[in-house]
Amino acid sequence: MSESPLDGPPQGKLSAQLTEGAEALMAAAGIPSTTAWPPSPGRGSSSADLESFTFGDGPKLADELLGLVIAGRKTATCWSVASGPSGVVVGRRMVAKDGAGRPRAVIETVELTQRRFNEVDEAFARDEGEDDRTLGSWRRGHQAYFTREGTFAPDMLLWCERFRLVEVIGEGADQ
Fold first, then answer.
1. Residue ranges of the domains in the chain?
2. Phi and psi at residue 44, in whole multiples of 5°?
3. Which of 21, 44, 90, 98 is packed most tightly, with the most Cβ within 10 A?
4. Which residues touch 34 (CB under 8 Å, ≥6 apart)?
């Protein structure tokens, strides 16, 4: 349940030779040995300098979830550990894109933990901001999502991220 110091995206080759122990740790975390370490927190001077992503598994869900973020209702998300850390580390800022691939918001990770699907609590389900914000609806919606992804198991390990909205980009930015 603790944050791993190895959560970081590939950013370039190491300038120094890794020890066997460090290589083993990185391999266990699924991080290529060509990953720069430590990772940059991703605070570029503008949103164009930041990595980007979309929420969900399709344009409709991406738009729905992004709308919840922009409205201030969604401040958390999760994904299967099997999918990797996705470049997320505490303090990193990333651009969330809408379903059409347009940059719409900058978010900053404020917490990153691992927990099992069946250990997610009411507080995290509420912070995800989806449906009626209850744990029951969170479990139904996420079981369906992870089943579509082919990774669902009641005890599957998840990355659970809390974030804050830093900036709204483009349409609706002045609201």
1. 1-39, 41-168
2. -70, 170
3. 98
4. 10, 12, 13, 14
Whether the Cβ atoms of residue 33 and residue 23 lie closer than 8 Å to each other: yes
Lowest mean pLDDT among 4-8, 27-31, 91-95, 108-112: 4-8
Tokens of 31: 């991080």
CATH number for the region 41-168 comes to 3.10.400.10
DSSP string for 110-122: EEEEEEEGGG--H
Which residues 6+ apart lie within 8 Å of 65 measured at CB?
Answer: 55, 56, 74, 77, 130
Q: Cα-atom radius of gyration of the chain, to the nearest Å?
A: 17
Instruction: Count the helix, strand and coil residues of the chain and give each as a percent rounded to the nearest 5.
Output: 30, 20, 50
CA 153 to chain centre: 19
Q: Kindly report the pTM of this predicted structure.
A: 0.71
* Per-residue pLDDT reduced to its tens digit, 12-44: 322 233 334 434 433 444 433 333 333 334 444
